[in-house]
Design goal:
Residues 42-293 form the G-protein coupled receptors family 1 profile domain. The protein has 322 residues and is mainly alpha-helical. Helices cover 74% and strands 3% of the residues.
């Protein structure tokens, strides 16, 4: 912070990025551009095949498309600005753009946690109540569950973002990050009780919106496992559990990267590690989700093969192996 007084008013923020990697901007640009393109291609592919293939018009895949749309929006809030910083040294971001990015990043983070809860509930109904599944998980119910997740998640961060925008910032405000997230912006504010309280409040809300959804997911899978163990045939148990493995891996990757991000902020580590851990959280799950669902889900793999051969390369449709 170069100047920090009660009369100062920040018009923009200076993103410090990775202090130890200032000589590798082109390499960082290339790596993050590759990741972003893979995320876009993977998630757009998932959305496309689910929309065009009638066999995938099921609740599980409806929620998967929500997850893919979410991952595209989630990475688009941060990576394009990062690419501009690495390529043309665009280190500054306006006050309004910073808080819009912060709100979008945290709102979409909460949305992902809630969508994962909804997906676990869908698996619970499919395995524990199979006879009533089609009655409960109607198209209207699916839309209501997804909409509730989106709307709730976009409401939760709003009060904290508004309060944080009222903090005092210096005329030259350095944010030690590649993008604006709550904790990095609060740490850049002028030190006073308001900043300390925002730091504590942000941590409490982060714990709440992480642990409550995680608890619901764990509870769902405890009930699912109990139900699976009651199935008589070994093959039946295997098939029932196979419908959950992709979702479990996605949940694991999401909460693992989130935990690493939280711990790096609270531990005494170099600033580059703090920044990298948060960047990994912002990229890892959106990058892995399409791979997990295409590699481990037979229906999705078959739908992708059909789409490629029948829609993109129709002359080769006779050699399609179903």
């Amino acid at each position: 912070m170069d100047s920090c007084n009660s009369n100062a008013s920040a018009k923009s923020f200076f993103l410090v990025r990775f202090p130890a990697l200032q000589d590798y901007q082109l390499l960082l640009f290339s790596v993050f551009l590759l990741f972003y393109l893979l995320i876009l291609v993977g998630n757009i592919t998932i959305i496309t095949v689910v929309v065009v293939d009638p066999k995938l018009h099921k609740p599980m895949y409806f929620f998967l498309t929500n997850l893919s749309v979410l991952d595209i929006l989630f990475t688009t809030t941060t990576i394009p600005k990062m690419l501009a910083m690495f390529l043309v040294d665009a280190k500054t971001i306006s006050f309004q753009a910073c808080f819009l990015q912060m709100y979008s990043f945290h709102g979409l983070t909460v949305t992902e946690a809630l969508i994962l809860v909804v997906m676990s509930y869908d698996r619970y109904e499919a395995i524990c109540n199979p006879l009533h599944y089609s009655v409960k998980m109607t198209k209207r119910m699916n839309i209501q569950l997804a909409a509730s997740a989106w709307i709730t998640a976009l409401i939760i961060p709003a009060p904290v973002m508004i309060q944080t925008s009222q903090l005092a910032f210096g005329e030259t405000t350095k944010v030690y990050h590649c993008f604006c997230d709550h904790l990095s912006v609060v740490q850049a504010a002028c030190p006073d009780f308001g900043a300390t309280f925002q730091n504590f409040l942000g941590f409490c809300i982060a714990m709440m919106v992480s642990l409550v959804p995680l608890t619901l997911v764990i509870l769902s899978y405890v009930l699912i496992i109990i139900s699976i163990l009651k199935i008589d045939s070994r093959e039946g148990r295997r098939k029932a559990f196979s419908t959950c493995t992709s979702h479990l891996i996605v949940v694991g990757s999401y909460y693992f990267s989130l935990a690493v991000s939280y711990m790096s902020y609270r531990a005494d580590m170099p600033i580059d590690i703090h920044v990298m851990s948060n960047v990994v959280f912002a990229i890892l799950t959106p990058l892995l989700n399409p791979l997990i669902y295409t590699l481990r889900n037979r229906e999705v793999k078959q739908a992708i093969r059909q789409f490629i051969v029948l829609k993109i390369f129709p002359p080769f449709k006779n050699i399609l192996v179903l």
